[in-house]
């Protein structure tokens, strides 16, 4: 934490007084850049009117006009999404909009939603193009893809097919020659949308909103469109949380209201998915990222993503329950595959470190890995070793390698891959995650070149994990009221992490206890002065002996944690979820 001066202290006091929040929360807000009462109020209230006007998105007016023309002329529209959660929710959202529009106009609309198969690759691949051309569309709307598909859009034009691109991925050297390319990252011409970090489902939500306004023939949408948009926020929030975009600005508003919509949703398939995930009450961001999203992703990873899309579109309760069960089973299968690949990838990573101890990035490859799961495993490798990781699946028949990568905060992964363009067949993504394809014989030279490029960006210190702490507190300050104030920082995630607090020079008066399945978790009590709090470490059984040492040696311990409310038998107490600990330097 940076040191506080008199001006900081006075500013924090003004925020605490003006917002009626604890001084702890006021100081955290100030450190996160909310220096005025207005900016802090906007952050905490998460009001719907903080969403930007969709017509400010580049080419939105052109897209609305062309889609309206297709509807008016009863032209065939194909919606082409992606096989991940962001792409599936984008496709479901716009398909559902057209259903509402058809009822609104009392007419049929010729709409065909399509999701590619993961084995065919991301975006408008040759296999996807063949499939789409066979449908004979008049208009193709790409969702969560298309920005990098210049040649494919040219091919559509050659067949007399118009294309509207709705995407959020990084923009290459040239935009595709589409009727409209709606991408918040565009900065060509006079494009300057106020927020660049929307996900695909977020951009799709904005398109549906703009279309609703158009077909309402009024700035205020009609009741049927308003009901749809409020419910559709659930899908937009799922894409936002699953795609790990920064939860700031309007992403924070979409996620907050979308989680409320998720609790109340009337979508039968989504309701069945929530039930099978055993989520009760208002979902938390973690319910989406660790329960709902993996099951939707499992369809594309282990079977066919069209199953997930069907679940989000079905109006049949029995079919919804069946599909939710199928996705649950596929997720269990995915977990088994993931564990096996993780063991193999971890062994390769350790081998690379043994050969090159100062290695600052991993490029790992095998011919028996599942392409649908390597992205998740890459995340696990990054978490464990705190280095960017690329995992490649080698296809001996085609002589190519397809893979996924994840990065740490200090390395912009897309930019790092861009430096290796000559060695890659295709690549795409953003700062934290990317996909790539290369000729298998290029893996070794690519590994050397990529690791060299990363070494020029990351210092040795950058790959040493450091536990960030937002605020140091006395244990006596850890009250129910403080926890309620900290809840106002939700939804938390990328770009807006849950506040981490610390307490120093605490004691551990009694040995920790193991609990849970296979005794994987542990808990203990920490005392500071007259205040004692229960500390819980999930999957923290490996810390048992170290914590026992603090008890036996009567030493002082520094703790980093997230305070949480725990209600048991109608009594609510503050519980500390452990993030890190160390021997205290304070006597």
Verbal overview:
- The mean pLDDT is 94.
- This protein has 587 residues and is of the alpha/beta class.
- The strands form 3 sheets. Strands 11-12-16-17-15-14-13 form a 7-stranded mixed beta sheet.
- It has helices spanning 6-19, 23-31, 37-45, 60-72, 85-105, 126-135, 150-158, 200-216, 223-242, 249-264, 268-276, 285-302, 306-313, 317-355, 374-385, 413-418, 443-455, 480-486, 544-553; strands at 77-80, 111-114, 139-143, 162-166, 180-182, 362-366, 389-395, 400-406, 426-429, 433-439, 471-472, 501-506, 513-515, 521-528, 531-537, 557-568, 571-583.
- Helix 7 links the parallel strand 3 (139-143) and strand 4.
- It has 19 helices and 17 strands.
Mean pLDDT: 94
Helical content stands at 40-55%
Record the strand order, biggest sheet.
11-12-16-17-15-14-13
| Computed CA radius of gyration, to the nearest angstrom | 25 Å
Distance between the termini: 21 Å
Strand percentage lies at 15-25%
Shape: globular
Largest sheet: 7 strands, mixed
Q: Could you say which structural class the secondary elements and strand pairing correspond to?
A: alpha/beta
Low-pLDDT segments: none
How many separate helices?
Answer: 19
